[in-house]
Amino acid sequence: MNLWEPILAMIMALTSFTIKPNPKAPAADAALAYAVDDADVVVHVDLQPTVIDNYPTWQKLADDPLIKQNAELAAGLRVAQTQVEGGRAMVKNLIGIDLTTDLTSLTGFARMRGPGVPDFVVVVRGTFAADLPQRLVQPMGGKPETIDGRVAGATPDGMLIGLTKDGTLLAGQRALVAPRLADAWKPAPRAKGSAWAQIATVLDQRPFFVLASKPSAAAATALAAQVKAS
């Protein structure tokens, strides 16, 4: 068999993966409920059509007739599937989350103010146990704390993980996460014609992936300095 044949078989087999519209995906009001007003970058991924719906196809990929034509390729895929399943089982055993079924969407907001790790908030929607934040921070030496009756987890490096009153998981710097975990949290209104209004228009179409940038002057200066230094 020529080299291109297994490559072609893989490409054709991968076409069995599909991304279908998800009418239940979070619209803008939900996706931006915990937005960081002065974020420079926003990323949103709908995990239902990208991961959850396609995982059964991934599990059967090594049995695809085109893949099975190449024994080495099929064997390699089975090894990869075993490793993925092992990781899935380990995460579920440690923190009680099935990464292929329990997470439905993810939205991230990053604020860049200089070199190093940006300020950020990661918003994860799905099905979570009430003690999940505590279980997540325990291996890092973190400690539990309570915000409006719900247990959150604080890490030694200043990160905070917790569940909001609607069951959404938030993670990021304490200064950004703590107020968003409180029952009194309300997102800022979106001004008509603003960058947030434009991002909201896109999210209301329920795409499976969005990446948007609205860099501040500080972020642009920091980026220019990094480019110049390189």
Description:
- The protein is α+β, with helices and mostly antiparallel strands and 230 residues long.
- It is built from ten helices and eight strands.
- It has helices at residues 4-14, 28-31, 47-52, 55-59, 65-68, 71-95, 132-137, 174-181, 195-203, 217-229; strands at residues 41-46, 103-111, 119-126, 143-147, 150-154, 159-163, 169-173, 209-213.
- The chain is globular and about 55 Å long.
Which descriptors would you attach to this protein?
230 residues, 8 strands, alpha+beta, 8-stranded antiparallel β-sheet
Structural class: alpha+beta
- As a whole number of angstroms, the C-alpha radius of gyration is 21 Å
Strand order of the largest sheet: 4-5-6-7-3-2-1-8
Report the biggest beta sheet as strand number plus sense, adding barrel if it closes: 8 strands, antiparallel
What string, H for helix and E for strand, traces the elements in order?
HHEHHHHEEHEEEEHHEH
What proportion of the residues is helical, as a percent range? 25-40%
Q: What is the number of strand segments?
A: 8
